[in-house]
Structures are given as structure tokens and as C-alpha cells.
């Protein structure tokens, strides 16, 4: 199993101290890590996933596309009828390299614990692809922006590895905060107030 240590260095690196860990072992550990991250993210997602913009859905749609490009995430598809925009980029985007290394430093103790010491976050996550889906709902005066994402590592998934599709919660918090900050700057250039959190009883129709 030494080939694993030599070739498999995407989002995770593997310590492989005993030299006999299997793909099944690594996939099981990866699943435990993903579940832990997903649970933690779901506890905080209301703070980061949605914002309300005091502008029409059509104007917000344009500003969201510009924001994604500004963050180094090229738009690969969009549908104004459904209000959906898709963008893709190479990790660590939209984080900086320094931010990613901070995430790795914070998360590595938990990653090592959940994987029995086999796995740790690599300083170079560039084998991971980030797909962002932004949905814009609303009408002429107000719109709701919903931010979703998914990770993939096609090269390694083709080899039978089940890689986490959920990012570390600290990375999600940093990336989401950056998205909303850049969106606010673009809205400001068009004399639109900064995006705000959704009120409990607010409702939005499909764009």
C-alpha cells in the first residue's frame, strides 16, 4: 500500500504509519470526517448560507455572477428562469493560501483523531474542485440569495476513493464571509444597500 502514500495527496494526506491501511479503511475514515463536518456546518449554516438584497432578482443575478468571477470562480452555467448560477474553481479558492493553511492547522487535530492518525489536511488542496451554486429568488424590489457548494476530486474518485464533498466548517465560514463581503462591494457600486440576513417570516417566490 505504499503507492497510496506516494500518489494520493489531494485534500488529505495520509500518514500510513503501519503501511497496511486499505482503501476501505481510508474511505471509512473519510466518511467519519465528512459527517463531523456536515453536522457542524448545519449548526452554523443559517449564519452564512442566505442573504436578502434590496434589489430586483434580475439585478442581483448580475451582481452575483460578477462576485463569483471576482472571487476567482468562473461561471460555468446560469439559468435566469430558475435563478440559478453555477461556478467552479480550484481549491483553495475562494480562500487564500494563508487562510487554507490556517484551516488545516485548526482542523488537523480532529482529522487525525477521526482517522486513527492516518489522515491530515494537506497544505496544497489543489486537486479538489469546488462547485458553487447560487440561487436568486424574488421579484422587482427584493431578492433572496442562497449559497450552496460541493467538493469533488475526480482524479481520485476514479481510483475508488470516496472523498468528502463537505468542506471544513471553518473554511465554509471564511469562504462565505468573503462572498458576502465582495457582493456588498458590488452592490454598493450600484447604489444598493448591503445584503442583510433574512427575517423569520419573509418569503420569496421563484425569480
* Percent of residues in helices: 40-55%
Average pLDDT confidence is 87
In the predicted model, the low-confidence regions spanning at least 5 consecutive residues are 1-10, 14-18
CATH architecture level-2 label: 2-Layer Sandwich
Write a concise keyword list for the protein shown above.
207 residues; Alpha-D-Glucose-1,6-Bisphosphate, Chain A, domain 4; five-stranded antiparallel beta sheet; 7 strands; 43% helix
Task: Please give the structural blueprint.
Elements: H1 2-7, E1 12-14, H2 23-48, E2 50-53, H3 57-70, E3 75-79, E4 84-90, H4 97-114, E5 119-121, E6 129-138, E7 143-152, H5 154-157, H6 169-189
Antiparallel strand pairs: 1-5, 2-7, 3-4, 4-6, 6-7
Helix pairs in contact: 2-6, 3-6
Explain how this protein is built:
This protein is an alpha+beta fold and 207 residues long. The protein has a single domain (2-189), classed as Alpha-D-Glucose-1,6-Bisphosphate, Chain A, domain 4. The protein has 6 helices and 7 strands; from the N terminus they run αβαβαββαβββαα. It has helices spanning 2-7, 23-48, 57-70, 97-114, 154-157, 169-189; strands at residues 12-14, 50-53, 75-79, 84-90, 119-121, 129-138, 143-152. Strands 2-7-6-4-3 form a 5-stranded antiparallel beta sheet. A two-stranded antiparallel ribbon has the order 1-5. A hairpin with a 4-residue loop joins β6 and β7 (143-152). The longest helix is centred in the N-terminal third of the chain and has 26 residues, at 23-48. It is elongated. The protein starts with a helix and ends in an 18-residue tail after the last helix. Mean pLDDT is 87; it is low at 1-10 and 14-18.
Amino acid at each position: 500500500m505504499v503507492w497510496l502514500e506516494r500518489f494520493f495527496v489531494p485534500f488529505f494526506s495520509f500518514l500510513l504509519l503501519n503501511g497496511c491501511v486499505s482503501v476501505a479503511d481510508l474511505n471509512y475514515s473519510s466518511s467519519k470526517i465528512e459527517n463531523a463536518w456536515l453536522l457542524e456546518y448545519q449548526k452554523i449554516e443559517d449564519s452564512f448560507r442566505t442573504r436578502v438584497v434590496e434589489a430586483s432578482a434580475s439585478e442581483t443575478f448580475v451582481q452575483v455572477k460578477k462576485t463569483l468571477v471576482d472571487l476567482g470562480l468562473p461561471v460555468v452555467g446560469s439559468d435566469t428562469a430558475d435563478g440559478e448560477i453555477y461556478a467552479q474553481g480550484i481549491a483553495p479558492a475562494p480562500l487564500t493560501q494563508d487562510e487554507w493553511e490556517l484551516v488545516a492547522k485548526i482542523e488537523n487535530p480532529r482529522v487525525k483523531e477521526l482517522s486513527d492518525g492516518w489522515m491530515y489536511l494537506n497544505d496544497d488542496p489543489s486537486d479538489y474542485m469546488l462547485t458553487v451554486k447560487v440561487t436568486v429568488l424574488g421579484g422587482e424590489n427584493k431578492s433572496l440569495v442562497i449559497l450552496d457548494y460541493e467538493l469533488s476530486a475526480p482524479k481520485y474518485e476514479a481510483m475508488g476513493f470516496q472523498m468528502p464533498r463537505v468542506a471544513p466548517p471553518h473554511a465554509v465560514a471564511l469562504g462565505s464571509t468573503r462572498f458576502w463581503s465582495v457582493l456588498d462591494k458590488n452592490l454598493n457600486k450600484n447604489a444598493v444597500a448591503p445584503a442583510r440576513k433574512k427575517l423569520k417570516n419573509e418569503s420569496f417566490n421563484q425569480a
